[in-house]
Structure formats: C-alpha cells, structure tokens
Amino acid sequence: MLDLREETLSKDARLKKEVMANRVVSQARVQLDNSDHFRCHCDSIDIGYEKGRLVLAGRLPSFYLKQVLQTVLRGLPGVRQIENRVDVVSATGLSSVSSVKSRMPEEIGRREP
Fold first, then answer.
1. Architecture of domain 2-110
2. Is the pLDDT of residue 100 over 70?
3. Which of 21, 38, 51, 76 fits as disulfide partner to 32, beta carbons 3.0 to 4.6 Å?
4. Do residues 60 and 32 lie in contact, with contact meaning Cβ atoms separated by under 8 Å?
C-alpha cells in the first residue's frame, strides 16, 4: 500500500511540474506575441522550461534581438535563469552558428503551436 501511495505522489509531482512548465512556456509565448520586436519572429524561437530555467533556442537576424529576447522574458514568474541558445543569422551571411547545432535538449524542449 505504501508503494501505491508513493507512486501516486510521484505522478502528482510530475504532473505539477509539467503544468508549471506549460504555464511558463505559454506566458513566454504571450510576451513574445505582444512584443513589437518579435511578432514576426515567434515561429523561429523554441522555448523550454525546467526547474526555474527558461531555455531559448532558434534563430534571429541580429545580436540586438537576441539580447532583447532575454530582456522581454526576464520577469516571468517562476523563471530564475535564462539560457539563451539562440543563433544569430543575418541576411548578409554573417552568423553566430557554430559547427555544433545549438538545439533545444529533448528533455527540456516544449513548443507550442
């Protein structure tokens, strides 16, 4: 009987974490949708959340936008740290993309339509 109770508590804890992650990612999406800087770039940004850490990945056309992205999302409830893995790729061919892709880790990645 104790095992069943522990299993139920474990499932509840996982569910709460998932709900929290979905809420933070949804709030981040709303912030970007409401920002004049990112209305045209929302589809190019992946957002993940785990244990107080917001992980950003994708591509933007300037270093300025990469920095503004962090600023726009900085005050979200539940976010203690922002990991900005966004690559800068401009139309002129200049790029910050390294030989190793800076993709969202599978265990953190959450993308909303």
1. 2-Layer Sandwich (3.30)
2. no
3. 38
4. no
- Picking from 95, 76, 77, the residue whose alpha carbon sits closest to that of residue 86 is 95
| Nearest Cα to Cα of residue 104 among 52, 56, 70 | 56
| Annotated domain spans of the chain | 2-110
Tell me the pTM.
0.73
| β-pair type (109-110, 45-50) | antiparallel
Give Dmax (Cα) for the chain.
Answer: 65
Mean pLDDT of the region 25-53? 89
Write down the pLDDT at residue 9: 60
Res 82: pLDDT:
96
Q: For residue 83, what are the β-bridge partners?
A: 55
